Amino acid sequence: MKKKTLNYEEAIQRLEQITADMESGKMSIDELAERLKEAQNLIAFCKEKLTATDEEIQQMLKAVEK
Fold this sequence. Notes:
Strand content: under 5%
Radius of gyration: 17 Å
Order of helices and strands: HH
Structural class: mainly alpha
Largest sheet: none
Number of helices: 2
Number of domains: 1
Shape: rod-shaped
């Protein structure tokens, strides 16, 4: 089975869902720990995406300035 590639918007939506689930107060400590790990991975993914996009934009702007 092919693993689906996550995009930035989907990662943000998942983070919002995790936040809502956590705020509900209905998760067990094990579920909470699992969701926190997932959230950490999603945050790292989003940060990498934003950094890469920023670098691409900076390169494009430099090319236009020349």
